[in-house]
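EI: anyone free to look at a 201-residue chain?
SC: sure, send it
EI:
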Amino acid sequence: MSTEGVDDSRRRFLLATSTVVGGAGVVALAWPFLDSLSPSAKALAEGAPVSVDISKVEKGQQITVFWRKQPVWVLSRTSSMLASLNQVTPRLADPKSEQPQQPDYCKNEYRAIKPEYLVMIGICTHLGCSPKLKAQAPDPAVDPHWLGGYLCPCHGSKYDLSGRVFTGQPAPLNMVVPPNRYANDTLVVIGEDPHENKSKA
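SC: here you go
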């Protein structure tokens, strides 16, 4: 009786076993490295800051990033967009941002550190839908006196180009501005307060 088949079976078994054991060894060695690349549970829970390069964001353009699983918009406002902010003041529910929907250092008509860049959480303060940027002005389809802003598709709440809510809307408050700071002229860090950063230095 030939033993060739038995030897081949044994050889295949040994090869398969050594492959599995070797693979497990590689995973065991690589795991600490791979684990170090992922955010810690604490960082995930607290919402680690997000750095955004705004050097290529064109005037009038808006980009979306995510922080704490929420969409955050960065809008590069044109001079005409900035000029519209004073013009809509009489029609706003909270034009001076008295409600704490933004850090104190963003409590101005721009609701921003740098007037040309709006950093804002893209969630309606009514029921949590995501408003749409309607920058085109005039736009009678939105409002007879529309100068640009945000329109919530769910229940029609309207905000200006600083995220300030108009009077008589379902939304009760201005949209939220998250903590943010500028690491340099073109890098905004969302989720960090500039004053806290200075105190840590």
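EI: The first strand starts at residue 50 and ends at 53.
SC: 👍
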